[in-house]
Amino acid sequence: MIFLAAIGRVFIAFLQATGRIALFTAVSLSHCVRPPWYPQLIARQMLDIGYFSLPVVGLTALFTGMVLALQSYTGFARFSAEGSVATVVVLSVTRELGPVIAGLMVAGRIGASMAAEIGTMRVTEQIDALTTLSTNPFKYLIAPRLLAGFTMLPLLVIVADIIGVFGGYLVGVHKLNFNPAAYLKRTFDYLEFVDVFSGLVKAAAFGFLISLMGCYHGYHSEGGAQGVGRATTDAVVSASILILIFNYGITEIFFATR
Amino acid sequence: MSANPKISIHGLGKSFGPKVVLDGLDLDVAVGESVVVIGGSGTGKSVLLKCVLGLLAPESGSIKVDGQEVVGADTETREKVNRKFGMLFQGAALFDSLTVWENVGFGLIRAQGVSRGDARRIALENLAAVGLGADVAALYPAELSGGMKKRVALARAIATKPEIIFFDEPTTGLDPIMSDVINDLIVKCVHELGATALSITHDMASARKIAHRIAMLHHGKIIWSGPVAAIDRSANPFVDQFIHGRAEGPIQMQVRA
């Protein structure tokens, strides 16, 4: 019985957390679509998420594209399909690795900093102070972050796609001795609009999830420095897990019937 | 006691799980009056303030501000009532990401739609009123000492010219001299604004200085209330123990929560 009770407790806690997150999301969204907006705050978040994540996302995308070319070449050589390297690289990067790698990197960078900042504001009563100064914290803190995450991740992923494909090209041409023109032709011959588009839809969803988890865990943090630390960890872990789950879901929606 | 109190609290109840913090609390604050609620740590003084401010939702009872019920009020009513409030937080709660003058002008810019130029001018006036010069205005809160933070927080609380100001342990964490400076500033600011003030503290020196009337909170109820002058002859053993800071007496401190 104790064992069953333990399972029940975990299950109830899970349902409670799900309900709280759903409510939090609903309230946040209602503030995203209702004026007043704070353009200055949205712009600052956009700069933080979009521009300052470029080095980290660019570097990871570059090496992902490079290793992808190298791996698929050595793998495909076993059945004489080396010619497909360019196609494999571009499809993997645009559909899958661009959004997922960018998403995970931004989750670590931005999700953590959002949770830490909002969490610190919570435990030092700054969020209460906002309310007493007639400013809704959802409007002032959370809506700008959600909007910025939702819009900036697709832009980041476009950059990641280009750099990732370029990484594959570098390895293909300079190390594996492909003809540059042939490699590029192979890259674009089989690329369809939906490949890139599905990746951008994923990116928008991931950006929203990252901001949502950062804000949610920060907003509900309690108990001083330790609580803020826990909020930061929870934000990154939950965002990463949700990214991988949603990644599968969106892939299934786009490609399962093809 | 005036017929129409500024704040009227009746039968306020709030518990956290099995722990009853406020247990049918009654308190009226008249227009222009300064009431200080005293009580030991963990007796629910902060909870009382947060209920009035709408940061916590009480389970029972009523809180009326200018006759308007705020318990269970919708967001719009709440925000309208909150515009009458100014609050000095225990830890100052200044916004780290904003400069001192932006902190002071925050309510003016966000809630009252004052332009940044005007807000800056008003912020500087308010900083001057708490004894801080224009050189402080461009600093960030992290660069200030504890006493200066409290002064900035006080300037922010009075900048919107609130009708009601709340003070949450205004002197906690300050040395006795700085405490007295803050107390003087509070008395001066409240007097100049003609505001109604509700404070909570366990610092008796502070309470004696800023209060017209003192109310003692114990076990979730106001067990004694009277003018400042009467506190030394309250004939209430709880009040006597508290104001003299004795470990022995009817109040048993819970060492373990």
Explain the overall architecture.
The complex is a heterodimer of chains A (258) and B (257). Chain A has 9 helices and no strands. Chain A is mainly alpha-helical and 258 residues long. Chain B has 257 residues and is an alpha/beta fold. Chain B is 35% helix and 24% strand. Chain B has helices at 45-53, 75-82, 100-111, 116-129, 146-159, 176-193, 204-210, 237-244, and strands spanning 7-16, 19-29, 34-38, 60-65, 68-69, 85-88, 164-168, 196-201, 213-218, 221-227. Chain B has a 6-stranded mixed sheet with strand order 6-7-8-3-9-10, with helices on both faces. A 4-stranded antiparallel sheet of chain B has the order 2-1-4-5, with helices on one face. In chain B, helix 3 crosses helix 4 (116-129), helix 3 (100-111) packs parallel to helix 5 and helix 5 (146-159) runs parallel beside helix 6 (176-193). The radius of gyration of chain B is 18 Å and the shape is globular. At the A-B interface, helix 5 of A face helix 2, strand 6 and helix 3 of B.
Tally the beta strands of chain B: 10
Low-confidence stretches of chain B: none
Whole-angstrom Rg of chain A: 21 Å
Distance between the termini of chain B: 37 Å
The pLDDT mean of chain B sits at 87
Count of alpha/pi helices of chain A: 9
Q: Uncertain runs of chain A with pLDDT below 50, 5 residues or more?
A: none
Annotation field: number of helices of chain B: 8
The whole-angstrom Rg of chain B is 18 Å
Strand order of the largest sheet of chain B: 6-7-8-3-9-10
Summarize the structure.
The complex is a heterodimer of chains A (258) and B (257). Helices cover 86% and strands 0% of the residues of chain A. Chain A is mainly α and 258 residues long.
Blueprint of the fold:
The complex is a heterodimer of chains A (258) and B (257).
Chain A: H1 2-33, H2 39-51, H3 54-76, H4 85-123, H5 126-132, H6 137-174, H7 180-189, H8 193-219, H9 224-255
Helix pairs in contact in A: 1-6, 2-6, 3-4, 3-6, 4-6, 4-7, 4-8, 4-9, 6-7, 6-8, 8-9
Chain B: E1 7-16, E2 19-29, E3 34-38, H1 45-53, E4 60-65, E5 68-69, H2 75-82, E6 85-88, H3 100-111, H4 116-129, H5 146-159, E7 164-168, H6 176-193, E8 196-201, H7 204-210, E9 213-218, E10 221-227, H8 237-244
Parallel strand pairs in B: 3-8, 3-9, 6-7, 7-8
Antiparallel strand pairs in B: 1-2, 1-4, 4-5, 9-10
